[in-house]
Amino acid sequence: MNDKRIIQFLLKRERLFKLTFYLLLFFSLLLFGAVLNLTVTSFNDNKMPVYDEYIDYHYETPTHFYYSNKSEVTYYILSDIFKINFNKRYSYYFSIGDILLYFGLFSVFITAILLIFKTNSIRKEFSKIEELKIKEYTKKVKWKKQ
User: What are the residues whose beta carbons fall under 8 Å from the beta carbon of 73, sequence distance 6 or more?
Assistant: First the structure.
């Protein structure tokens, strides 16, 4: 019975290491998305370029500028090129960097929660194994005294 518990503990510890690896992987995705957004904004006068083929003028806000000609922008592929229309008046634009950033952030959050729960279960399992070892040791000591 003690051997089974130790094996279960080792398997849970291995899962914990896998979760830690995934946490680092997703965190690196988050950082890569941030670097992509930083790259495109730094090469375009510290503003995020937003592509819209229906705009026939150059429109600027404090943080973005809108364009329809791809030659106006450095690193076109990293700009906000994807569009979601919510209604006729409002659209949401996002880039490859945004996708990586949001996916990385969501995955880091979920992995961190799983890591917390797995760590608690491993602590409980470890304490049970330690209790068994103490009981076995006390049995051996009592047997030797007799």
Answer: 44, 49, 51, 67, 79
Tell me the pLDDT band of 53, cut-offs 50, 70 and 90: confident
Distance CA 85, CA 91 (A): 4
Q: Strands, E, within the chain: which ranges?
A: 48-51, 59-60, 64-67, 82-85, 91-94
SS3 label, residue 93: strand
Cβ pair 122, 19 in contact under 8 A: no
pLDDT tens digits, 98-108: 999 999 999 99
How buried is 104 (Cβ within 10 angstroms: 0-12 exposed, 13-18 middle, 19+ buried)? buried
Contact in structure between 132 and 8 (CB atoms under 8 Å) = no
pTM attached to this predicted model: 0.70
Instruction: Give the start-to-end residue ranges of the domains of the chain.
Output: 2-145
